[in-house]
Amino acid sequence: MARKTHVAIIVPDGVGIKNYLYSDLLRLLSEHSEITLWSPLPEQAFEEVKQVHSEIRLNYKPLQIHKESILTRVFRESATYARLHFFKNKTENETLLLNWRKPKSFKQKLLYGIAELVGNWAKSDYKKILKLEQLSKKYWSDSIIKFYKSQLKDLKASSVFITHQRVAGLMPICLASKEMDIKSVSAIFSWDNLPKARLCVSTDYYALWSNLMAEDMRLFYPEIGQEQLKVVGTPQFEFYTQEYRLIDRKTFANTYGLDYDKKWICFSGDDELTSPYDPNYLRNIAEVIAQYNEDVQILFRRCPVDFSERYNVVLEEFKDVIISIDPIWHTESSSWVGYFSKYKDIDLQVNLAHHCEGVINLGSTMALDFASLNKPCFYLNYDTEIDANWSTNFIYKYHHFGSLNGLDPVGWINGKDEIASAISSILNGSQKRLLESQKWMERIVQFPIDENSKKLSKLLV
Asked: Could you give the domains of the chain?
């Protein structure tokens, strides 16, 4: 019998647990590989993962993430600033610059001020940008790389899988694995990540959602070889194909205190930075329903990392119209990177999409979750406040919304006066738009979506 390979899955924070560790990926990997979860999160963070996959053996190894040196950080941030400006000009899309961080403390302002100065030197010359990134790698100390080489040797790892690309402290693991000829793979976390110039790791292969994401990789990172780009999809949508997760409508209504006789429409919230005026939108929708359509309830799902009290007044005022169903997440951490989904949240989200007539939000990927079950989405496309730093005029010009070009997959609510007709459209259904939403999803996610775990496992083994 052939010797099993050993896959070390690096989980730098909680966001990778739901999308990868609760999926079929671990089960499929276990058929050919030993698996170690290598993470700075405590071992108890993976208890539910082990319960879900109780039939397989999952090892755990604590991961110590070292801080970047000041030179590494300065060169990396300088390259980020230069990239944003370079591709702003190349794509003629000013919104790319909105991804540059706004420092708050004196130290941050000093750091980012230096990064901007150096970045301005490089922003018109792509070779200079690559030089800055090479310098950022160069200033990782030999002792840190040696430390990770020792860790990889102890693991006897044959491949390393990083669940997302945004943690700069993982770069020395990539450098160590390269020196040891250990295959490294990084997933790209979300459909909107590549234009943000936050590809913080350098791996042998990149696990991509779709051919469209591969096109974006070739656009924003032309130095990465075509052979390194692997379109394997993402496992997070496979849950919607698993009918055993569904519960009947009456049970769902009783569980969450819903009116069984009413139609349900989901309003899904964004984080406070992405959509600071979400409570205003929720209020607008609730006012319309209270006035025109008493046969509808709003099922409100907040963003899992938004624990602010900003919705409280609206929820109390419209408690007969809005039912808040909070995500089922572990939230004991003091930082969002330690938040992660409980397994039950998968069933909740699947049933929310299954039992609701459709979803309304501001540019969220929840449109894709609902499209997985052939349910419509309406995007909010108007401002409720005058704010020089935020507007829907910015939001829908983001690069990733170019995936909508030539299609009509979502409805648009361009003002409060269009909410009533949008709700009527959701309730009555538009088969043409549903067909378009499927085409849109096939652009963004590799199909068939229930085979993505299998494709990713083959890449890792």
From this structure: 5-67+140-234+451-460 (3.40.50.2000), 70-136 (no CATH), 241-444 (3.40.50.2000)
